[in-house]
From TrEMBL:
GO cellular component, one term: plasma membrane
Name of the protein this chain belongs to: ABC-type transport system, permease component
Parts of the chain that traverse the membrane: 63-84, 105-136, 148-169, 176-193, 239-261
A Pfam family it matches: ABC2_membrane_2
Species this protein is from: Methanocella arvoryzae (strain DSM 22066 / NBRC 105507 / MRE50)
Molecular-function annotations in GO: ABC-type transporter activity
Cleavable signal peptide: none
Keywords for the protein's UniProt record, in alphabetical order: Membrane, Transmembrane, Transmembrane helix
Length: 267
């Protein structure tokens, strides 16, 4: 456990200064500013026409764009972290020390997930701050905080699933171009292409569809998590089955990656 946490901390620290993280951070800040400063007119209309808290609706204006950007970052970080070290041959040095391969994979996953938690928290809080500055405070601070915290957790879980899936891809190949292409293909099929055509009834198992179900588990005027007319407890009880399913998928992909990596003779 101690070794795994050391690897997780090292991965977290390394990712903080990763060029992709800095680039995506700038893009998310720009999206948050546009949403906070430019979406006030829309929020005024919603505030006048509906009884729900328009501040939460403000999050719904950018959640798809922000989520997709964060997913792209999670996919590329997850897919390239292991092939990059294989390419640099640093794994050969690491595994001369008393280090289990499962601890290495688990530590990488925990470190990247911790980074996405911090990144998502910063992005969501910055968005909320701008909405409050340019529009107004939420009607209920406690309900607002509950929904924002839930939003951060849901987004981080979705990123964790994407990381676990793309780390599995990274285990299968040490060619960075191959895993990068695979990550781009995944993003296209999951976020852009209509995967219902190929997967049919199983399409809801994809990370993007599960994420959408967590945000909007029941049909409401606005996404359920942002609809303050829908009690938070109703959203949570409706989202629990999808939370469980997402956790199972994360575990399956992570264990598959660990299993394949521990059986690999040549690194």
């Amino acid at each position: 456990m101690r070794v795994m946490l050391m690897i997780a901390m090292q991965e977290f620290t390394h990712t903080l200064t990763h060029p992709l993280a800095l680039l995506v951070g700038g893009i998310v800040l720009a999206v948050a500013y546009i949403n906070g400063a430019g979406g006030v007119d829309t929020l005024e209309i919603v505030n006048a026409q509906a009884d729900l808290d328009a501040v939460m609706v403000g999050f719904g204006q950018s959640w798809q764009a922000t989520s997709m950007i964060c997913t792209i970052m999670a996919a590329f970080l997850g897919a390239t972290t292991i092939p990059y070290e294989k390419w640099k041959h640093t794994l050969n040095v690491l595994f001369t020390k008393p280090l289990y391969r499962k601890d290495y994979i688990a530590g990488k996953f925990v470190g990247l997930t911790a980074f996405m938690l911090v990144f998502n928290t910063f992005a969501v809080m910055f968005t909320g701050l701008l909405i409050i500055v340019y529009f107004r405070e939420p009607l209920s601070v406690s309900d607002f905080l509950l929904r924002v915290i839930a939003y951060i957790i849901v987004m981080t879980m979705s990123c964790s699933l994407v990381i676990a899936l793309n780390m599995l891809i990274g285990v299968l190949s040490k060619n960075i171009l191959v895993v990068t292409s695979a990550a781009m293909t995944y993003i296209y099929f999951d976020w852009i292409w209509n995967n219902d055509r190929m997967l049919g009834n199983l399409a809801f198992l994809t990370p993007m569809n599960l994420y959408n179900k967590l945000i909007n588990p029941i049909t409401t005027l606005y996404p359920t998590l942002y609809d303050t007319l829908t009690p938070f407890t109703l959203w949570f009880s409706s989202a629990v089955p999808y939370i469980g399913l997402m956790l199972i998928e994360i575990l399956v992909f992570l264990l598959a990656g660990i299993h394949l990596f521990t059986r690999e003779d040549k690194i």
